[in-house]
Amino acid sequence: MGDTPVSPSEPVIDRHGGTSETSNSMYLIPDLVDVEAAIPAELTLPAHLEAMLPEVVAGDPTALAVFLAEGLKDAATGKGTSAAEMSTTGVCGVRDPRESTVERGRVSTEVMVSAAVAVIERWNELRPPDVAAR
After folding, report:
1. For the chain, what is the largest distance between any 2 Cα atoms, rounded to a whole number of angstroms?
2. Percentages helix, strand, coil for the chain, rounded to the nearest 5?
3. Residue boundaries of the structural domains of the chain
4. pLDDT tens digit string along 76-105?
5. What is the pTM of this model?
């Protein structure tokens, strides 16, 4: 993927430490983020992960599950694919981290909180009435 600029609408890998996680951090813990010091990563994936990358980027849920299970694991796990071994910066993504924004982090956080609240509310609806009294 190299030094070729990535279009914001182009589907590419943007996982561990990518623009989404950086945006969330800019919103939630801004004092810990210096996005101007960040540089885009160059992937250095092992061959088996590189081979499945097109399917991961295309949205195949099984390929993503295998990619995540096999990747981002320290050598001590027997997988030998820690974040540092997967890219030049430890980020598993190729977008420029300077694409990250506080607003994107705010929206993402609100979506996650709303989803969590919806699950809890639905869980409470489905529980037997006597469970709450225990």
Report:
1. 60
2. 55, 5, 40
3. 9-41+91-129, 45-86
4. 776 667 777 788 998 888 899 899 999 999
5. 0.76
